[in-house]
Amino acid sequence: MPALILIGIWQEFDMILTTVIAFTGGLLGILFMIPMRQVFIVSNESNLKYPEGLACASVLEAGQETGDPKQASSIIKGIMIGALFKGLISFAGVLRGVLEIAVLSGNRILFFGGDISPALMAVGFIVRLNIAALIFIGGFLSWLIGIPLLGNGLEFSTNPLEGAWQIWSTKIRYVGVGAMVIGGISSIYKVRKGLIDAIKVLRQSQNDSRQKSIPISERNMSSRVINILSLTAIVLVCGVYFNITNSMTIALVTTAIMMVMAFFFTAVASYIVGLVGNSNSPVSGMTITAVLFTGGLLYIFGFSGTEGMVATLGVAAIVCCAACTSGDVCNDLKTGQIVGASPFRQQIMQIIGVGVASLVMAPIMQLLHENTPGGIGGRELAAPQAGLFASLANGFFGDGNLPWDMVAIGASLGIVLLIFDTFLEKNKSTFRLHVMPVAVGMYLPFGLSTPILIGGIIAHFINRKNKTDKESEISLQNGILVSSGLIAGESLMGIMLAFIAGAGIKSLNLGIDPIVTTALTIITMAVFVFWFYKESKN
Predict the structure, then answer these.
(1) What are the Cα distances from residue 433, in Å, to 289, 399, 463?
(2) Cβ 18 vs Cβ 315: under 8 Å
(3) Which entry of 46, 136, 292, 347 is 20 to 30 Å from 104 by CA?
(4) How far out from the chain centre does Cα 465 lie?
């Protein structure tokens, strides 16, 4: 978690402090999510598809209902192809992980590129063309329009590609931040009824006798347990804030802000994960929004200097952990709903999982910080998101200068998108202009949006003749299974390569000429796209 990394560095990686932040943030994400399950997962199936939760359910159900071995075969093929690509790119170096180029035209940098990732293409297939196109539009606006419009290309005449990345990271990215602020506010507004319903569900759940009348397949954790754990987490967070600020006043104010922010962004994360999937959930963007709101409120309340900066990052750390965890919890609960799991049993295991993960994460972060040249935040482990949060906090309480003009441009663009989307909604258009996916595309490297768009286009061509949702799901079922395998294969290979790197073998050096590597990458991707289309269509 980027903000957690920053707090850890500030405290020289006090492992107890870091573990408490990770555990309480994740725990609050789960506890705030529980009353929202009925609202976002059960009652909004038509609007929120939870593509990755659906993919996980497809994997679990493969072959169970029909006995068709082809379903399991599709998953296995996907796993093998995804793992093979990851190995050839990250370990063998036979293929390039990204193809990108930037050229100078006068004082303007023209950039284009794309990641070589079957998993991202699979995500595009799962989220369908509308969302994939919106993510690409965001990337297009940032990289193909924003960067050339800013100019300053002559400053990077020797390396236009490096210039494109620097302009994006220092300026254009903040346009995405501004759009995300509007998208976050819009998302909260859109789920306002859901939040109210969630509060009603939370109040109703206080009656444990009523909970017992609910079928076990729909029952959440006991309200008494939720209350005790929530109170414990809030007290621990308040203690953390007092520890890092040495002020009970600012600790209490910051705790109150944290509770509101964490609750709202748990809802926003649940909504976005249901809309575009966990892989595309802009947790960093939500954390940035939390930093901006928290920093603004603390500034208005008269706090300043180091205590204001650290308090802001403390809120960001908890909100970041809560948003990340709630997104994972949503997918897990959606998968459980599809396959018939008991929610309260899932929730118990999720809490245990957060506890185990927080215990493991702190010592690993400390080892990385102490045994890597420059530590976390240095050249080898740059932690760019943490640096971005630091620059935002420094802009409020230090001597840093934020590109507020870029943030304002992004916010204006977000408002324009909202107006257009309202028009499309009123005219019952099948294509929508959701602000957050566009903001995600602006905020992320452009290369990620390219394979996502290709995956969405493939899903569109396979699905275009179907008129009903049932026909659509049937026609895309095989592609979803293949996509699930691709995502799982690439992820599992990444974990395996991490273990190999830990043993001292980071990669192979086969000495292949870069031109040959590029040619092999283009040919291999063309073959893969054709294979993915044919395999998904069958």
Answers:
(1) 21, 38, 21
(2) no
(3) 136
(4) 32
Rounded Cα–Cα distance for residues 525 and 447 (Å): 14
How does the average pLDDT of the chain come out, rounded? 80
What is the mean predicted confidence (pLDDT) over 302-317? 82
181 backbone dihedrals φ, ψ, rounded to 5°: -60, -45
Please tell me the distance from the alpha carbon of residue 93 to that of residue 382, in angstroms, as a whole number.
23
On whether the CB atoms of residues 467 and 453 are closer than 8 A, the answer is: no
Element (H, E) at 113: strand 108-115
> 113 forms bridges with which residues in the sheet?
100
- Note the helical H segments in 38-191: 51-61, 69-86, 118-139, 147-150, 160-167, 173-190
Which class for 391: exposed (0-12), middle (13-18), buried (19 or more C-beta within 10 A)? Answer: middle
Tokens of 276: 């575009």
Q: DSSP label at 99?
A: E
The single residue listed with the structure tokens 């919106």 is: 134
What is d(CA 480, CA 74) in angstroms, rounded to the nearest whole number? 9
d(CA 390, CA 154): 29
Tokens of 198: 């969630």
Question: Which two tokens mark 430?
Answer: 């099948």
Six-digit token pair at 465? 């003749």
Mean pLDDT of 14-24: 82
Residue 144 in 3-state DSSP? helix
pLDDT tens string 317-333: 888 888 888 888 888 88
- HSE-up of residue 176 (Cα within 13 Å, Cβ side): 34
Facing residues of 103 across strands? 110
Q: Model-level pTM greater than 0.70? A: yes
Q: Identify whether the C-beta of residue 254 lies closer than 8 Å to the C-beta of residue 298.
A: yes
- Amino acid sitting at position 385: Q
- In sequence order, which residues have a C-beta less than 8 Å from that of residue 235 and are 6 or more positions away? none
Tell me the CA distances in angstroms from 440 to 97, 166, 285, one per residue in order: 21, 18, 8
Q: Can you tell me the distance from the alpha carbon of 52 to that of 277, in angstroms, rounded to the nearest whole number?
A: 6
Lowest mean pLDDT among 234-248, 391-405, 416-430, 472-486: 391-405
Confidence class for position 368, pLDDT limits 50, 70, 90: low
DSSP string covering 501-515: HHTT---------HH
Q: At what angle do helices 469-502 and 51-61 cross, to 10 degrees?
A: 90
Q: In a 10 Å sphere around its CB, with 0-12 CB exposed, 13-18 middle and 19+ buried, how is residue 510 labelled?
A: exposed
Residues 224-253: b if buried by 16+ CB within 10 A, e if exposed: ebbeebbeebbeebbebbbebbeeeebbeb
Q: Are 413 and 433 in contact (CB under 8 A)?
A: no
**Of 268, 270, 266, 247, nearest in space to 258 by CA:** 266
DSSP string, 333-347: HHHHHHHT--HHHHH
The Cα–Cα gap between 380 and 369 comes to: 11
Percent of the chain with pLDDT over 90: 16
Closest CA relative to residue 329, chosen from 345, 346, 341, 315: 346
Quick check: 310 and 10 in contact, CB under 8 A? yes
